[in-house]
Amino acid sequence: MILSRKIISASISGTLFTVLLGFIWTNPFGDNITSIQNYLFSVISVTPIYMMYSMPVIMIYGILTSIISDKIGEFISIKAKETNAEIFVSGALHIVFGLVLFWISIGASLLFFITDRLLKSRNKKYEWLEAIKSLAIPLLTWLILMGIVWGYD
């Protein structure tokens, strides 16, 4: 059931990451932002674009590397007979795998790691239906933001 938890983590952290990226890197095309309204519209406009490109990467590469990181962390923790080693090794590997696009992807990998650890700390068994439902988070976010952009014209 680790895969279902990872899918939920990717849905939550990927959506959060793209929204934060929209607020931080609002103007990737170099247009002048002259007002708060212009800034907010730019955030709303660019976030769905970020989602289209980053969500597939987070869902495939992020989930795969997160599983690998956790399994290596568990293995080292068992071999070293140190229970705290797992979280440090897994966290370090999340950062290493997040070095793909440096600061952008490190942010995504850290959000993924934190989200996954919070879900894991709940000691809940995540079912496939919950994982599938979690995919509505990025989808609805994208649809709402695109609806605002299309309605603004």
Kindly describe this structure.
The mean pLDDT is 91. With 153 residues, the protein is an all-alpha fold. It has six helices and no strands. It is elongated.
Give a short overview.
With 153 residues, the chain is mainly α. The chain has six helices and no strands.
Helix content: over 70%
**Spans of 5+ residues with little confidence (pLDDT < 50)?**
none
Largest sheet: none
What's the pLDDT, averaged over the residues? 91
Percentage beta strand? under 5%
Shape: elongated
Number of strands: 0
Write the layout of secondary structure elements.
Elements: H1 2-24, H2 36-80, H3 85-97, H4 103-121, H5 128-134, H6 136-152
Give short descriptive properties of this protein.
153 residues; mainly alpha; 6 helices; elongated
